Amino acid sequence: MRILGIETSCDETAVAIYDESKGLLSNLVSSQMTVHQPYGGVVPELASRDHQRKICLLLDQALQTAQLDWADIDAIAFTEGPGLLGALLVGAATAQALAYSLKIPAIPIHHLEGHLLAPLLEDQHPTFPFVGLLVSGGHTLLMEVKNIGQYTLLGESLDDAAGEAFDKVAKLMGLPMPGGPAVAKLAEQGNPKRFEFPRPLLHQPNCDFSFSGLKTHVRNLYQKLQPTDAQTKADIAIAFELAVVDCLVTKAKRALSLCGVKHLVIAGGVSANQRLRQVLTTQLTEIGAKVFYAKPALCVDNAAMIAYAGLYRYRAGQYASLAVAPKARWPLIDVLPI
Ligand code: KG4
Ligand code: ZN
């Protein structure tokens, strides 16, 4: 059984092939960073056009890398949402046209379910039930995951997503896109004792987050200090990163205790953050729990996670109809159980 996955929800065009017995046979990602960099953020129309330019090339390359032919592919999984509608349309239309012509099923996948299941691709993987902390550029959610497709929302960000906060802070500080890795790199040189940032909602007895105040805090501090030296910038970066990590870790621990489970999965772009991984590893060990995550390349947007989620939905017979109808908005709790 081999599933080809296609991901085009935002600014990465990605194609991967997952073999049920051999694992990942190819995993290609083409970033649009240079396309959007001059605008300081993703421009939806440019994203769609760039996906269109690259998708066929990547499909050919994925087959070549895996040394396969179209006849060796059993199903095509694609990101049906959420994301930028025009960008999603390119992937959905390509996947459904291919599936139709090859007479194989097309499998619609929720982008966040892909992220959530990516850590299951690793040798060290969690068992159900677990708590999932999804931290990406567009979402920050804590979910109880009883099984694939059985998700209960425990809490979420009331304003900016964690990745969005990293990106906005990076922009304020004049750092390149994507903001998260740039802020994290700068923070490595920072003095953690110089600034103490607020921890929004930390002591409220829920699993919700709020990150927009942290971004405002950075903006105000910048206006006050007008820093030109690298050390002050690094000190601000580490204070911001520590505040975000503290909020994520505290609420993740609360979610584990609420659900009475010991396995936490972190997924999405921000789960590549080394400090988040370190602090979680230390603090969860102290309470007899364990954190699981994917390798950095599988934390950010990729098609391996879409192909992998596609395998479960294929086995459940959850195929796409002929209508090409991607969803820009689609709450994760609305996906079908398996
Ligand atoms: O999951 P993802 O690739 O795309 C979305 O579905 O949104 O996540 C991208 C987000 C960006 O905001 C990026 O700045 C952030 O993940 N990110 C990080 C790191 N690597 C990526 N944030 C903090 N530290 C990192 N190392
Ligand atoms: Zn994503």
Notes on the protein architecture:
- A five-stranded mixed beta sheet has the order 3-2-1-4-5, sandwiched between helices. It has a five-stranded mixed beta sheet with strand order 8-7-6-9-10, sandwiched between helices.
- Helices cover 43% and strands 19% of the residues.
- The protein is globular, with a radius of gyration of 20 Å.
- Bound molecules: 5'-O-[(R)-(carboxyoxy)(hydroxy)phosphoryl]adenosine and zinc ion.
Biggest sheet layout: 5 strands, mixed
Instruction: Give the names of the bound compounds.
Output: 5'-O-[(R)-(carboxyoxy)(hydroxy)phosphoryl]adenosine, zinc ion
Number of helices: 11
Distance between the termini: 18 Å
Tell me the radius of gyration.
20 Å
Proportion of residues in β-strands: 15-25%
Unreliable runs: none
What is the string of helix and strand elements?
EEEHHEHEHEEEHHHHEHEHH
Shape: globular
Helix amount? 40-55%
Number of strands: 10
Question: Which labels suit this protein?
Answer:
single chain, 338 residues, alpha/beta, five-stranded mixed sheet, 11 helices, 19% strand, globular, binds 5'-O-[(R)-(carboxyoxy)(hydroxy)phosphoryl]adenosine, binds zinc ion
List the helices and strands and how they pair.
Layout: E1 2-7, E2 12-19, E3 23-31, H1 33-36, H2 44-66, E4 75-81, H3 85-102, E5 106-110, H4 111-117, E6 130-135, E7 140-147, E8 150-156, H5 162-172, H6 179-187, H7 212-225, H8 230-259, E9 263-267, H9 274-286, E10 290-292, H10 296-299, H11 304-315
Parallel strand pairs: 1-4, 4-5, 6-9, 9-10
Antiparallel strand pairs: 1-2, 2-3, 6-7, 7-8
Helix pairs in contact: 2-3, 4-11, 5-6, 5-7, 6-8, 7-8, 8-9
